[in-house]
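Q: I'm writing up a methods section and want to include an example of the input and output format. Could you take the sequence below and give the corresponding predicted structure tokens, formatted cleanly so I can copy it straight into the document?
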Amino acid sequence: MGEIVFKDNSVQVGYRIKIPKAIIDTLNLKLGQKIKIKFDSDKKIIIIEEDKNEKRKN
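A: Here is the clean output for your methods example:
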């Protein structure tokens, strides 16, 4: 598994989830595509994966 580290960023709080463009490009995600975001509080990691059960509506 590749690892991407984003340094010199600050924590932002809000209702929207912003994912850095480098991650979107690496995962080859498209605008409006459904994703799942999993957070493991024990390991302190976030996993982003496409939602294969949800069909894209274009």
